[in-house]
Amino acid sequence: MTEAEILRLIRRVAGISQQADEQTTQPDSVTAENYVRVVAEVIRRNGIQLNDVDMRNIRIRVLEMLAYNRRVALYRETEKITYHWKKPERLRR
User: Fold this and answer.
1) Which residues, including other chains, have CB under 8 Å from residue 64's CB and lie 6 or more apart?
2) Per-residue pLDDT tens digits for 3-43
3) Would you say which domain of life the source belongs to (predicted)?
């Protein structure tokens, strides 16, 4: 299951409608908890029971994934910013 499919499932379960120009900002812990609930529900539907250790591991992996995505977005954003020095027309005195 990809991240986009999980997000779609979370939005459907939680009743969240996200427009293209509107971006919701939630703490990573809330997002991770939502991911864990959805993943746990999908796994339970497949007939597998999860214990607390499994839930903790899923939550940790989700937080790692969110941190990685945030770092990648930050790197891409910093690559866009370029500074071009221009020689002044006249010297200040």
Assistant:
1) none
2) 777 777 767 766 555 554 445 577 777 877 888 888 888 88
3) Bacteria
Q: Which residue has the tokens 């499932």?
A: 9
Considering just the CA atoms, what is the radius of gyration of the chain in Å? 21
- Residues 6+ away with beta carbon under 8 Å from 65: 3
pTM above 0.70, yes or no: no
Using alpha carbons, list the distances in angstroms from residue 35 to 16, 25, 63, 78.
14, 15, 10, 28
pLDDT tens readout for residues 68-89? 988 998 888 888 777 778 887 8
Residue 33, pLDDT score: 82
Answer for the pair 35, 5: CB distance below 8 angstroms, yes or no. no
- Tell me, what amino acid is at 32? A
Dig out the tokens for 2 from the structure.
Answer: 């990809």
If you ran DSSP here, which 8-state letter would residue 31 be given?
H
